[in-house]
Amino acid sequence: MTVRTRFAPSPTGYLHIGGARTSLFSWLYAKKMGGEFILRIEDTDRERSTDEAVDAIIDGMEWLGMEHDEGPFYQTQRFDRYKEVIQQLLDNGHAYHCNCSRERLDELRAEQMANKQKPKYDGCCREEGLAAADDTVIRFANPLDGEVTITDHVRGTVVIKNQELDDLIIERSDKTPTYNLTVVVDDWDMKITHVIRGDDHLNNTPRQINILNALGAEIPEYAHLPMINGPDGKKLSKRHGAVSVMQYHEEGYLAEAVLNYLVRLGWSHGDQEVFTLEEMIEKFDIKDINKSSSNFSIEKLQWMNQQYLMSLDPVKVAEQLAFYMMEHGIKIETGPALVEIVLLLRERSKTLVEMVENSRFFYESVEEYDAKSVKKHIKEGTTAILVSIREKLANLEEWYADNIHHVVQEVVNEQEVGFPKVAMPLRIAVTGSTMSPSIDTTLDLLGKKKTLDRIDKLLVYIANQ
After folding, report:
1. What is the pTM of this model?
2. Catalytic: which of 31, 234, 238, 457?
3. Distance between CA atoms of 399 and 452, rounded to whole angstroms?
4. Residues 244-258: pLDDT tens digits?
């Protein structure tokens, strides 16, 4: 048997963290088992579905590297097939027409709730033999006794008595099919062997199994994933970071890091935190998915991203950094090679966008100085220190970090001050603030001319205060 999994999002919004993780687990299991991964767009909700959302979902999956083997298939292109299956259920006595009004159903629900009963349709039209009409819906004739046993790879065995289920609508009065019908037909036709999805769908599973049984179709295996919560344990929302996956791309996260973080949201393999893609595929098993909910943490994602910034080939990181440099209007030809920036800043930057901002002074002139830094470090005597170090740096024939460090230390000794008394004003001169890597490495990358020009500029600024 060829394992076939699917990801079936509704295009009513972007691809968020929860959807991306569901897609990843389905994709990984297919790859692990040498199977096939199918993308299906469940776009029957025409009022809320948009082409932009479809594009956003596909873009997010492509960025993360989750390529589908088949699809995308669109449910709106399969209405004829759904009608065919609904007619088959009618012909076999597994479905019937119902003309119960909204008022009757509302009264029924209110009465059941008042009696502390589970609200469900009472089968009023089940034996009426009604014909199709403008106001009729079609209901599935759910079995009246027995039970449905779900052997779930995450939750174990789940047993639902058929008496707890009702005759759900499979075709609305406007003659469009409902979710539980379309998903069954699609999984059947597409030969899906494993349905991996959020546990918010668990209540749909016994209904779908009963429809599959009525059609004589093979039942797929199921794995229902626990939900993802925010760090406070509450439902994940935008304030927790539940944004479009592509927003993480815009913010400078590496796709490899986001993928690694997603796989650890609810799945583990010993104490290992960082996985290559090959390791994810090799080690992934749906039986190892946690039964409890996971908590999303932007701090943990940032940590993971920094691990990748530090461990990936700096040349590859530099290629990605170039995109963000251009996006933020920095002309990379005016400064050091980007691979040098990566090596210098990867331990000080959580994202590529942060790396852009941390390296901006290498490519653009310093137009203003941080007021707090100036107040704290530009004191009486600073001018003499800057003049001295400028003279020594100007006379330096071989411009590299060790020599620059020696010059700074020489000024420290001559002026009889602590190292920060020299390094901090120098940092302010070349970066505009006191935030930079080691001063000798910073000046080495910046270059001799820019360094001297910026010291001159700060001296003028001090003189005019």
Report:
1. 0.90
2. 238
3. 12
4. 899 999 999 999 999
